[in-house]
Amino acid sequence: MNARVLVCLIWLALPVHAQGFAGLGQGGDGYTLPEPNPDFSFPTDHGAHPDYRIEWWYLTAFLEGEDGQDYGIQWTLFRSALTPEGPQVWMGHFGLTTPDAHFSGERFSRGGVGQAGVSPAPFAAWIDDWQLAGPDFDNLTLQASTPEAAYDLTLSANGPIVFHGEDGFSVKSASGQASYYYSQPFYEVAGTLDLPSGPVEVAGRGWLDREWSSQPLEADQEGWDWFSLHLEDGSRLMAFALRGGSPFYYASWITPDGTLTPYYGDALALEPLEKALVAGRDVPVRWRLRLPAKDVDLEVEAVNPQSWQSTLFPYWEGPVRAEGSHSATGYLEMTGYE
Question: How far is Cα 253 from Cα 250, in angstroms, rounded to an integer?
Answer without folding.
Answer: 10
